[in-house]
Amino acid sequence: MENCSNNYEAFKILKGSNHIATFSSQLNFAEQLVKINPSKVLDYGSGIGTFIPLVIQMSSARIYAVEKNEWCRGQFHENLMVQQIKDQMRVELHSILPDIDWNVVVVDDEITRSEIRKILRNESIQLIFIEGWRNRTVGHFSKRLALHGY
């Protein structure tokens, strides 16, 4: 709980923080992350990097962050340095969805149906965490989960 509180407090004062995950959302995610202990995490729509410290602190997973917005990508890199994130070598930032199998998927951005299909082809997924008020995204994932054997 303290990790989530510290993370929220650290990120809420940064540029671009007006849409970061709330404390309670970060706490919900962290609780699931610890239970699963993933080896690979996809953070789709990484924004300014809010979830990265939590994944690093609470798992040994490799992190594949996807952020399409150039300004957010710059803030992401800056925030990793400012927050003095340890184990930065475990983090890769991409502008498109890499072809990797993940245990945990975080979605915090608009995502296409083809990207959802690509994610769900993976048989190793243990958690899909959709952040924010993304009803359409929840609907698209829900429709496709059964089609992919989940």
Write up this protein.
- 43% of the residues lie in helices and 15% in strands.
- Strand 1, helix 3 and strand 2 form a beta-alpha-beta unit.
- The radius of gyration is 14 Å and the shape is globular.
- Helix 1 crosses helix 2.
- It is of the alpha/beta class.
List strands and helices in order, with pairings.
Blueprint: H1 2-11, H2 23-36, E1 40-44, H3 52-58, E2 62-66, H4 70-82, E3 91-94, E4 104-107, H5 113-120, E5 127-130, H6 135-147
Parallel strand pairs: 1-2, 1-4, 2-3, 4-5
> What class, by secondary structure content?
alpha/beta
Radius of gyration: 14 Å
User: What percent of residues adopt helix (DSSP H or I)?
Assistant: 40-55%
Mean pLDDT: 88
Which H/E pattern describes the elements? HHEHEHEEHEH
- Count the beta strands: 5
How big a fraction of the residues is strand? 5-15%
* Count of individual helical segments: 6
Task: Based on Cα principal axes, name the global outline.
Answer: globular
User: How many strands, what sense, and barrel or not for the largest sheet?
Assistant: 5 strands, parallel
Can you list the strand order of the major beta sheet? 3-2-1-4-5
Low-confidence stretches: none
Throw out a few tags for this protein.
150 residues; alpha/beta; 43% helix
Would you kindly provide a brief summary of this structure?
Helices cover 43% and strands 15% of the residues. With 150 residues, it is an alpha/beta fold.
